[in-house]
Amino acid sequence: MYWNYLKSGFRNLYRNKLFSVINITGFSLGLAVFFLIVLWINYEVGFDRFHKNAKNIYRVVAEFDQNGIVDNFANTPAPLGPALKEEFPNVIEYTRCAQIEKNFIISGNNQFWENLFFADEGIFKVFSLKLRAGNTANILSSPSNVIISQRVAEKYFRDENPIGKTISIGINNQSTFTIAGVLEDVPSNSQFKIDFLLPFNNLSRNSGWDIWNYTTYILVDKQNDYKSLESKLQWFTKMYQLDPTTKLHLQPFVNIHLFSNLRNDLSENVYYPKLILYVAIAIIILLLASINFINLSLAKSTLRNKEIGIRKVIGANKKQLRFQFIGESFIITLISFLISIPFIYYFLPVFNQFVNKNIALSQFLNYGSIAFILVLLLVLTLVNGLYPASVLSSGNPAGILRGNLSIKQNSIKFVRQSFIVFQFVVAIFFISGTLIIKSQLNFIGQKT
Known about the structure:
The chain is of the alpha+beta class. The chain folds into two domains: about 1-45 and about 270-445, no CATH class; about 55-260, no CATH class. It has helices at about 1-15, 15-45, 80-85, 125, 150-155, 225-240, 255-260, 270-300, 305-315, 320-355, 365-390, 395-400, 410-445; strands at about 55-65, 70-75, 90-105, 110-120, 130-135, 145-150, 165-170, 175-185, 195-200, 215-220, 245-250. A hairpin with a 5-residue loop joins β7 and β8. It is elongated.
């Protein structure tokens, strides 16, 4: 029976080719824009979650209170990490990180400027970073070792094996380093943009408790209540005689990108209200696409009076007619989704340039995303099909066949006009609201 509804739906789409092309094209474009924004949201929400122990990693941050003026920093002193591991048994490992931007590097005849990243050996235990070449064991114990990224290896050494080659880096009066490893590329939605990873010991000249220049991450036991650990940090600051105006806090690693707005963050984070704005934009675009779909379906209703009347005369009831129209809605929704895929693929590079990201479709290919798409298609089928199905299946068959248009054409006309007005109002509100919110977020960003 349901197969007959689908066959009837396909025949109806074929008979009304122009309507079908307009409806499917409009809806597929709306879906494409919606999914591009969803990809963006998924990219931001998924920041740093590829690390195996992401939920058990915390960053130690500092709060300074100077005469009632509170300021928050991502920086901590170098001895903090080792001291935390020594004092708290549930701190499994730590790593201290620092970054120097645009440093002069010489490799053979190549001279270039690159960012440098410094860390302890613990970085490989705290985070899920892997080497394509080299061994993580003791690789950062020698101050003269350097690990380069896969991108750097391909860019500067091409097909050559870079392991064992030397490069000169402009730190500590132009030091020579030996390439000891090649780091696997990490997803682009990561805090760490590491091209040159050097041992933290190269920064040991600034290793006192009074130099707050480094970012400290700790890996804690899975059973640990980090709030309980955080409360003990105040005792820790007193024991190590830190500035009494200073408080230490633990920040969940997975929350940094969305909720952190500290001074001296290692990477640029997204301001959380912006993400809410993206979600609102995606929902509004999908809503407008669905309203346009319903409007076109109602506009075609006058052309289907005779078909509906004949079906009722030969015994079709309201339930069967509604199933037919919902079946047509499903077909259009499914075809629109399939057509939206090449649109997404084609426009994704342009979208990436617009939002200054490196979003890949592969990041969305997982079971959760497939489930989301299936549920969305079902919801859209019902949203787009239920009201037209309810309206078009009502009415007296004899009146319809006599041309009395007893399926409430005046009501349909009113609904269509209301939808059009609603679309214009939403579009104007959407554009105006976006501009206002964007200016407010920029203002807040400048102030913070």
